[in-house]
């Protein structure tokens, strides 16, 4: 059986990608997105309006039952004017509803190192006994 002295505490770094949010980024909330719409379709629809930096589709539907997402641009000097320019855009025959997002996105803080509660045995040999369980 593996003794307590044969276990080692491990530290690991969170395995997520970090993202820096540009200071001059403007987010627009998009709703009424048709089922099956893709980010490449959105890129074609919206990249001619400005410097499109990100497209995000929500995993669930909004409170009104419609699919939603966000498009983000950098270097928008007049967000209200940009919002007006985006009105009337259609995707798969549906007119998209686009507004300036009420809240910006939160930056990820991925440089944290956490101590795992898990311990890893130093030995690969386990005594599982007749029941097949370690113990």
TrEMBL record:
<dbReference type="InterPro" id="IPR000504">
    <property type="entry name" value="RRM_dom"/>
</dbReference>
<dbReference type="InterPro" id="IPR012677">
    <property type="entry name" value="Nucleotide-bd_a/b_plait_sf"/>
</dbReference>
<keyword id="KW-0747">Spliceosome</keyword>
<dbReference type="Pfam" id="PF00076">
    <property type="entry name" value="RRM_1"/>
</dbReference>
<dbReference type="InterPro" id="IPR035979">
    <property type="entry name" value="RBD_domain_sf"/>
</dbReference>
<dbReference type="GO" id="GO:0005681">
    <property type="term" value="C:spliceosomal complex"/>
</dbReference>
<dbReference type="GO" id="GO:0008380">
    <property type="term" value="P:RNA splicing"/>
</dbReference>
<feature type="domain" description="RRM">
    <location>
        <begin position="26"/>
        <end position="103"/>
    </location>
</feature>
<keyword id="KW-0694">RNA-binding</keyword>
<protein>
    <recommendedName>
        <fullName>RRM domain-containing protein</fullName>
    </recommendedName>
</protein>
<dbReference type="GO" id="GO:0003723">
    <property type="term" value="F:RNA binding"/>
</dbReference>
<keyword id="KW-0508">mRNA splicing</keyword>
<dbReference type="InterPro" id="IPR050907">
    <property type="entry name" value="SRSF"/>
</dbReference>
<dbReference type="GO" id="GO:0006397">
    <property type="term" value="P:mRNA processing"/>
</dbReference>
<keyword id="KW-0507">mRNA processing</keyword>
